[in-house]
Amino acid sequence: MELNLSRPIAFLDLETTGIKVATDRIVEICILKINPDQSTKIKTQRINPEMAIPPEVIAIHGITDDDVKDCPTFRMVAYEFSHFLENCDLAGFNSNHFDIPLLVEEFLRADVEFDIKGRRLIDVQNIFHKMEPRNLSAAYKFYCNKEHIHAHSAESDTIATYEILKAQLDRYKGITIKERWGKIIEPIVNDVKMLSDFSYSTKAADLVGHIIYDDKNQEVFNFGKHKGKSVVQVFKDEPSYYDWIMKSEFPLSTKKVVTSIKLRGFNNESVKLELF
User: Fold this and answer.
1) Which of 9, 72, 86, 144 is the S-S candidate for 76 at Cβ 3.0 to 4.6 Å?
2) How many domains does the chain have?
3) Among 198, 226, 256, which residue terminates a domain?
4) Same domain for 70 and 117?
5) 122: domain range?
6) Which of 105, 101, 30, 104 is nearest to 61 (CA)?
7) Is residue 69 located within the same domain as residue 131?
């Protein structure tokens, strides 16, 4: 089943120096852009991460320091990729938790604004895990009946993810989650908004889920000693916690959200003082 699109969607996959969004870097990126008329364009680029690639990571994706030493840095190609992704919804495999947050982090480090507001984010892994919990290679075999021979190649993983999502739409057409989870929600349909909503387990305020929304739609911490507590209230009661976050190895995208919440709380207090 082809995707029902009202605007382009970009499937992406990153090979990196590790799994820490705040400190690791991209060594290879592939983006497969699907247009509403079903025409496609693929863009693959190896990147010099400006840091050593650990041996245990090389053992996974096979990209060495020598392979990328003469490649451009991300800063050198950031505008090119930002333009390629303009007006695109985004999709990938585990992309909501890793690929998209790390990509945004790289854009921030390169001083290139890349706003994800208004974009739909589809995580094929989350759909897969909710319906048939396994990994990418197993998903490719299960849905497409193909062996994922070149696993951990950015281009191969990206194309496989696109094929899996189309196969998921065929397999789950008309099936509601009531049949699996015992509760009624809308059936899986060929709609980017629905697929994006279904890709999330919790509603997060930042990309990696350090800050989430509670049932009152207020931002709360999702880690550490203040887990479950209101971000605004914690900063009011313990101002030094904000400074600790800003000085620690949190993603820049998380720090940006935290600062926005901090400033909003400060502005609200200022308004209250002016009223008196």
Assistant:
1) 72
2) 2
3) 198
4) yes
5) 9-198
6) 30
7) yes
Contact 88, 165 (CB under 8 A): no
Q: What is d(CA 26, CA 17) in angstroms, rounded to the nearest whole number?
A: 7
Cβ contact 15:63 at 8 Å: yes
Distance CA(12)–CA(112), nearest Å, equals: 18
Cα 196-10-27 angle, rounded to 5 deg = 115
Q: How far apart are CA 34 and CA 58, in angstroms?
A: 30
pTM here is 0.70
Task: Identify whether residues 194 and 216 lie together within a single domain.
Answer: no
pLDDT of residue 186: 61
What is the mean pLDDT of each successive set of 10 residues along the chain, which is 276 residues long? 95 96 96 97 97 94 96 97 96 95 96 92 91 83 88 90 93 66 60 84 86 91 93 93 94 94 73 45
Rg (CA), the chain: 20
Reference 215, options 202, 227, 200; nearest CA is 202
Element (H, E) at 168: helix 154-171
pLDDT for residue 181: 39
- CATH number at 194 reads 3.30.420.10
Same structural domain, 61 and 85: yes
Cβ proximity of 16 and 143 under 8 Å: no
187 and 102 assigned to the same domain: yes
Determine, yes or no, domain membership for 78. Answer: yes
182 lies in the same domain as 220: no
- Do 99 and 215 lie in one domain? The reply is no
- Alpha-carbon distance of 22 to 245, in angstroms, equals 12
Confidence (pLDDT) at 151? 80
Amino acid 242 reads: Y
What does the block give as tokens for 174? Answer: 């008309």
- The pLDDT, as a whole number, for residue 180 is 43
